[in-house]
């Protein structure tokens, strides 16, 4: 199979779909890889590294989109990239379609076969192995970003997250005890903050307490608990997730009036539309804005800020499935692997992921039927 790796063009996105190590593996499997010049510079991978791995270098993304059978990316295709997709071409990347009707419309129109990393499942119930490493990164980054925003020079309350002897630490409230919440808690507790996780699953709360001990408080998720805890928080982390669907709006605009002036909301769920009514996607260039005295940090590609770590962590989980697709062909690979099939969001003009279809008003088509069409 001819695999194409274009340079990412989203604002301050430095990750790349395949590392030179991944390219070498694909070549060893008998495939050809096209890489756009400069695609790996953000992670310190030079064009010469890709050539040594067996890739061919190309000047433009247009050439790669025109020739490659499978496009491997990191972030959702931007409008200019979507316009280059063609019927039957495989797109393998993060998509986050539920809050993005324009992207969904373009992908449907293209006729491409679009596999979303974030909905590929794993053998363990509820696991999302291609989303997990970026959720780990984003969860950890959410605390360091939030701590920075709490500094007075950034408009925050002027608090040190862990406090000092004789001065209370900051209170961190984490909405959701999944991968994002767990990793955020690990960093926040390590920095000495007062940490509360609000979570729906009693089993998950038991797991969190077993892991972190008395350094972590857990509360069952109710609207009352969210309102009360967030009102007393210095830093709130939004880490809720419904796979493939828009994030629930746990934080309303009305609630912000009760929050402390200069407190911070880091909405890691922004890729799926955000868990606050006041959240809107920002970039690393302008990461924050203020609503009712509350600093909102809503960068939609947080892991792009630590591109090298993120890219290698991502390739660890995306490469094996990319090789399955290339080795077997997309139809057989998806048919043979139900976990990979769960990643199929759009196929030959049909929406094949139920939560996306429901949120955006499309008719849901079973992915196997769409593939066979």
Give structural notes.
- With 373 residues, the protein is of the alpha/beta class.
- It has two domains: 2-119 and 307-372, NAD(P)-binding Rossmann-like Domain (Rossmann fold, 3-Layer(aba) Sandwich), CATH 3.40.50; 132-300, 3-Layer(aba) Sandwich (Rossmann fold), CATH 3.40.50.720.
- Helices cover 37% and strands 16% of the residues.
- It is built from 15 helices and 15 strands.
- The chain has helices spanning 20-28, 47-53, 61-67, 79-82, 101-110, 132-149, 179-190, 202-212, 223-231, 253-256, 307-328, 330-336, 338-341, 354-360, 367-372, and strands spanning 2-5, 32-36, 56-58, 70-72, 90-93, 113-116, 171-175, 194-199, 216-220, 235-238, 264-267, 288-291, 294-297, 344-347, 350-351.
- The protein has an eight-stranded mixed β-sheet with strand order 3-2-1-4-5-6-14-15, sandwiched between helices. Strands 9-8-7-10-11-13-12 form a seven-stranded mixed β-sheet, sandwiched between helices.
- Strand 5, helix 5 and strand 6 (113-116) form a beta-alpha-beta unit.
- It is globular, with a radius of gyration of 21 Å.
- The two termini are 22 Å apart.
- The model has no long low-confidence stretch (mean pLDDT 97).
Largest sheet descriptor: 8 strands, mixed
Number of domains: 2
The number of distinct helices, counting runs of at least 4 residues, comes to: 15
CATH architecture heading of the largest domain = 3-Layer(aba) Sandwich
Indicate the percent of residues in helices. Answer: 25-40%
Low-confidence stretches: none
CATH class of the largest domain: Alpha Beta
Subunit arrangement of the protein: single chain
């Amino acid at each position: 199979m001819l695999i194409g790796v274009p340079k990412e063009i989203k604002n301050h996105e430095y990750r790349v779909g395949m590392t030179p190590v991944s390219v070498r593996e694909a070549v060893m499997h008998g495939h050809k890889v096209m890489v756009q010049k400069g695609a790996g510079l953000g992670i310190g991978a030079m064009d010469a590294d890709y050539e040594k791995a067996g890739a061919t270098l190309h000047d433009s993304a247009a050439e790669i989109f025109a020739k490659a059978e499978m496009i491997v990316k990191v972030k959702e295709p931007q409008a200019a990239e979507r316009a280059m997709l063609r019927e039957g071409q495989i797109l393998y990347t993060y998509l986050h379609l539920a809050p993005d009707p324009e992207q969904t419309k373009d992908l449907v129109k293209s006729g491409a076969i679009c596999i979303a990393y974030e909905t590929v499942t794993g053998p363990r119930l509820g696991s999302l192995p291609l989303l997990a490493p970026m959720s780990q990164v984003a969860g950890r980054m959410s605390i360091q970003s939030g701590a920075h925003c709490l500094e007075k020079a950034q408009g925050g309350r002027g608090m040190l997250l862990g406090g000092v002897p004789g001065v209370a630490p900051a209170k961190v409230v984490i909405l959701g005890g999944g991968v994002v919440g767990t990793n955020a808690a690990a960093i926040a507790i390590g920095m000495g903050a007062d940490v509360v996780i609000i979570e729906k699953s009693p089993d998950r709360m038991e797991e969190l307490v077993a892991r972190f001990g008395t350094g972590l408080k857990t509360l069952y998720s109710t609207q009352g608990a969210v309102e009360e805890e967030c009102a007393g928080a210095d830093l709130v982390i939004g880490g809720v997730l419904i796979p493939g669907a828009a994030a629930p709006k746990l934080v309303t605009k009305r609630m912000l009036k009760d929050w402390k002036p200069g407190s911070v909301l880091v909405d890691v769920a922004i890729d799926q539309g955000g868990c606050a009514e006041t959240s809107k996607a920002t970039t690393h260039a302008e990461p924050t804005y203020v609503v009712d005295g509350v600093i909102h940090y809503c960068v939609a590609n947080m892991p792009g800020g630590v591109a090298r770590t993120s890219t290698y962590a991502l390739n660890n989980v995306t490469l094996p499935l990319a090789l399955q697709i290339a080795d077997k062909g997309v139809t057989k690979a998806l048919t043979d692997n139900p976990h990979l099939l769960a990643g199929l969001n759009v196929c030959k003009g049909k929406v094949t992921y139920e939560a996306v279809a429901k949120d955006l008003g499309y008719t849901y088509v079973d992915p196997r039927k769409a593939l066979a069409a």
